[in-house]
Amino acid sequence: MSPSTGAALRLLAASVDAKAVAEIGTGCGVSGIHLLHGMRADGVLTTVDPEPEHQQFARQAFRVCGFASNRARFIPGRALEVLPRLADAGYDLVFCDGDRLEYSDYLAESLRLLRPGGLVVFEGVFANGRTVDSGPQPTEVLRLRELLRTVRESQELIPSLLPVGDGLLCAVKR
């Protein structure tokens, strides 16, 4: 994750005064660290990843950064199996950095999870410039274009595309 993407995540979490954040794709914990830095001091990050070892790396990284263990809740599993178990309208921000082929499904779940005024953020929507390339594209890029169109045309969302890192698609739920 680029420093500019991390800074944007901190800013976005702070801008919604995030107390509850859901993260799809724990990775090694870099995005989670940025989100936690932007969240309220009593905020909790719920992070979902199918790879338990990713969550172990992240747990250790959070500890090294000085975050109390009660600031993060780690749920192993596939996002589309875990997200339906999370509370409706219980989140201030949902950060999506998982399987790009599932981004449209993550959007549907995010809309249910977010409170009004909450923010959904998708990482990597530029696909290294391929989303604007006119040539034939792989399924991942076609799905990203579909997501961008859906968010842009939604009456339920106020979107913006931030040109940091590999692109952050952000949208506030009305």
From TrEMBL:
Keyword Lyase set for record: no
GO molecular function: O-methyltransferase activity; S-adenosylmethionine-dependent methyltransferase activity
Gene3D superfamilies per UniProt: Vaccinia Virus protein VP39 (3.40.50.150)
Keyword terms of this UniProt record: Methyltransferase, S-adenosyl-L-methionine, Transferase
InterPro entries named among the record's database cross-references: Cation-dep_OMT, SAM-dependent_MTases_sf, SAM_O-MeTrfase
Ligase recorded as keyword: no
GO biological process, alphabetically ordered: methylation
Protein name, UniProt field: Putative O-methyltransferase YrrM
Superkingdom field: Bacteria
